[in-house]
Amino acid sequence: MSETIPKCLACESAATKFWFEKTNAHGCYPISRCRDCGSAWVYPRPTEAVIARFYEQYNRHPSDLSIDDLFARVLQQERDYPNSTIDAARFASRCRMLTRGNRFLDVGAGYGFSSRAALDVGFEVTALEPSAVSREIVKKLTNITAEPSMLTREFVAVHERAFDVVLLSQVLEHMLEVEAVIDQLATLLDPSGVLCLAVPHFASAISRLQGKGDMFISPPEHVNFFSRSGLEKLLLRRGFVIVKMETVSRVDVQKKLARLPLKPARNVADRTVRAIFSAMDAIKTGMFLNVYARRA
Ligand SMILES: [Zn+2]
After folding, report:
1. How far is the CA of 227 from the centre of ligand 1 (A)?
2. d(Cα 90, Cα 121) in Å, to the nearest integer?
3. What sign results for the dihedral spanned by CA atoms 41, 44, 49, 54?
4. Residue ranges of the domains in the chain?
5. pTM, two decimal places
6. How far is the CA of 43 from the centre of ligand 1 (A)?
7. CA 249 – ligand 1 centroid, Å
8. One pLDDT digit (tens) per residue for the chain, 296 residues
9. Ligand 1 centre from 223 Cα, in Å?
10. Centre of ligand 1 from the C-alpha of residue 258, in Å
């Protein structure tokens, strides 16, 4: 099977091979892997129809929940475990330091935490979000009316060089046409603008431990699994230079620890997990890869 696998979608190495077939509730998906950069990807690629069907179900709003109830639930979840808020504040402050411009594009805005953090540090925010339910939450959280799509050819054509920051947080791992997306981002950015990408880190310590059981190998939702060197080479090849690359580790640790019966035991476990995460991030082997880049 190895002779049928194309070159690495991240680093373009020809040293690629079939790795394993991931089977889940949505089907069977062969995964290929690069022996040079360690990135992996679903190949053959799922069809657009498979992807569309998946997101139609994924984005379906639970009929028993009003938007107000969902909004309350999102806020409560974020108060209890403020991972999205912390991530969003990090993106916003890093980008604020890297550009004087104010035009910020949040691609795949989700519930709008990154857009809200960008507003908080003075950016003017445009948000793209294909899910109607998520757009309603974005509106409630930020008062921004998000565009009902992801990147389209039409949007890119009328927004050439229109943004000082383009953020894709937890988006690129979903995209079928990775190079085309990176090229669209280059078109959208002002020549001095900053691209901020955040993806699950496929070469993280936890990912290596999990191997084929990596929790982020979840096709057809995720179809690309980037190592640090793979993502770096992809960006360099498409005309970007890396300004900053870091890993960030977080999980709903406290939620999991809440099962421990004794508070002192929870506190010890919490401190231990945090220390391990800090150590992983210090050597860039943490769970999520955050990259800040400019056009070369
Ligand atoms: Zn590679």
Report:
1. 8
2. 11
3. negative
4. 2-295
5. 0.93
6. 14
7. 23
8. 445 889 999 999 999 999 999 999 999 999 999 999 999 999 999 998 999 899 888 887 777 789 999 999 999 999 988 889 999 999 999 999 999 999 999 999 999 999 999 999 999 999 999 999 999 999 999 999 999 999 999 999 999 999 999 999 999 999 999 999 999 999 999 999 999 999 999 989 999 999 999 999 999 999 999 999 999 999 999 999 999 999 999 866 666 677 777 778 778 888 888 888 888 898 899 999 999 999 99
9. 15
10. 40
Distance 234 CA to ligand 1 centre (A): 9
Rounded to the nearest angstrom, the distance between the alpha carbon of 94 and the centre of ligand 1 is 28
- Å from CA of 14 to ligand 1 middle: 8
User: For 2-295, CATH number?
Assistant: 3.40.50.150
What separation in Å is there between the alpha carbon of 244 and the centre of ligand 1?
20
* Distance of alpha carbon 244 from the chain centroid: 16
How close is the Cα of 205 to the center of ligand 1, in Å? 18
Ligand 1 centroid vs 214 CA: distance in angstroms?
18
- DSSP one-letter code for 122: T
Residue labelled with tokens 């919490």: 270
Beta strands in the chain (DSSP E): 16-24, 27-34, 40-42, 103-107, 124-128, 163-169, 189-200, 224-225, 240-248, 288-295
What is the Cα–Cα distance from 171 to 290, expressed in whole angstroms? 12
What the block records as the tokens of 250 is 């977080």
CA distance 197 to 292: 7
Q: Which amino acid is at 88?
A: A
Ligand 1 midpoint to CA 136 (Å): 39
Separation of CA 13 and ligand 1 centre (Å): 5
What is the number of other CB atoms lying within 10 angstroms of the CB of residue 209? 9
